[in-house]
Write a structure and sequence with these properties.
The protein has helices at residues 12-47, 104-111, 121-125, 134-141, 160-173, 199-207, 217-229, 252-261, 272-275, 278-291, 301-317, and strands spanning 51-54, 58-65, 80-84, 87-88, 91-96, 102-103, 144-151, 179-185, 189-196, 234-241, 266-271, 295-298, 319-323, 334-340, 349-351, 355-356, 362-365. The chain is α+β, with helices and mostly antiparallel strands and 377 residues long. α8 packs parallel to α10. The N and C termini lie far apart (68 Å). The protein has two domains: 52-97 and 102-140 and 319-365, no CATH class; 142-317, Rossmann fold (3-Layer(aba) Sandwich), CATH 3.40.50.
């Protein structure tokens, strides 16, 4: 309400300006009240957005064999005991070989006797975080991406064509669901075929390689592991090397740690020439063992083919386990242990990676969380 005060002895022309001034003041006051009230509410609405902490899924490829080296099949999730720094972990997903990966909550629910008997304790302990949908989880764990790294250095002048033939046969033998990338290296890395399901593209990359310069194996292997870590799902790197590294600036320990932390097994097939150098032999064996892969030393092209066949069989028999880490104050290297429980199976041999270094925590705002990354374990 606008109050007007006027004296009888004042002329009317003096009263008009006073009315206008009071009206302008009131309008300005009302404007500022509306402006600041809406301005205060807007940030409050932004603060109401949910903040999601994205926790990485630790994925393990586990090979189980008996004393003869034969693969053990038919194991169940409850047969495995996984610990991280001594802390028992709850499995989130499980699969064997090339079968589809399933969430354990689905598997335990299917085995439940009925709603009246209650939910099994195992299912209660193995629910996945609410922000992970079935579609997202499937993209994290489905399929197998195989990165092949071929030595085209001057070590390969002898037997080059035989090595190409062995790699080509390996590519053809992989399951259709798998995607393959083909890289070659000498002093530098050549990405001859990016990750694809088209086998003909990969085979063209194999056939167009030529032998060349010195061997920078560890430099190029580090780049290959970095490339592989950008993709979701199961990854594996298969290296064919004919000799030692004589041109790298990167130590093999850095390569092994990155492969362990990103959950990428490294398989190495090398010729007898590499085995004649004790340092390379020891490095190859340590690196593959730490990541859950294997090292092969082939005397001739027939053994090279058998080595590739063995890797293919290994991929077909691996158990794929995953879990979301339990609270752990350790921000450095975390040791992973996988054991079998039960008198019948506890003496079988297990091969998998032995640890990882967690990546920094990531946060997202808004109603929809960002897709979980596979760059950490």
């Amino acid at each position: 309400m606008i109050r007007i005060s006027a004296q009888n002895d004042q002329p009317n022309n003096h009263m008009v300006p006073r009315i206008r001034v009071a009206s302008r003041t009131s309008l300005l006051l009302a404007f500022f009240l509306v402006f600041f009230s809406t301005g205060i509410q807007a940030p409050a609405q932004k603060e109401e957005a949910h903040i999601h902490v994205i926790v990485d899924l630790v994925q393990l490829n586990v090979a189980v064999t008996d004393n003869k080296g034969d693969y053990i099949t038919g194991l169940r999730p409850q047969d495995f005991l996984v610990t991280e720094d001594g802390i028992s972990q709850k499995l989130a997903t499980f699969s064997e070989g090339n079968e589809p990966t399933r969430r354990l909550v689905d598997m335990t629910a299917a085995a439940a006797p009925g709603p009246s008997e209650g939910k099994p304790a195992a299912a209660e302990n193995q629910e996945l975080p609410a922000q992970v949908s079935g579609q997202t989880l499937g993209s994290l764990t489905a399929g197998a991406n195989v990165f092949i790294l071929f030595d085209t250095s001057n070590y390969m002048y002898r037997g080059f064509v035989f090595a190409q033939d062995a790699i080509a046969d390996f590519v053809r033998s992989l399951e259709n669901a798998d995607r393959v990338a083909f890289y070659s290296y000498s002093r530098n890395l050549s990405r001859a075929a990016a990750l694809t399901a088209d086998r003909s593209t990969v085979l063209r990359g194999v056939r167009t390689t030529v032998a060349g310069d010195d061997a920078a194996l560890y430099n190029c292997l580090l780049l290959t592991v970095k490339d592989a870590s950008q993709f979701t799902g199961r990854k594996v790197v298969v290296v064919f090397s004919n000799g030692p590294d004589n041109a790298s600036m990167v130590p093999p320990e850095d390569v092994a740690e990155l492969a362990q932390s990103t959950g990428i097994p490294i398989y190495m097939i090398s010729t007898q020439q590499a085995k004649l150098e004790p340092v390379s032999t020891a490095v190859f064996e340590r690196m593959t063992a730490a990541t859950g892969g294997k090292a092969y030393f082939a005397k001739n092209w027939k053994e090279e083919r058998r080595a590739f066949s063995s890797i293919r069989d290994d991929l077909a028999h691996l158990y794929a386990l995953s879990y979301y880490p339990q609270p752990n104050p350790n921000t450095g290297w975390r040791a992973i242990s996988v054991k079998l429980v039960g008198d019948r199976i506890k003496n079988y041999h297990i091969r998998t990676r032995n640890g990882y270094r967690p990546q920094p925590a990531r946060f997202t705002g808004g109603g929809v969380p960002s897709a979980p990354s596979n760059s950490a374990p």
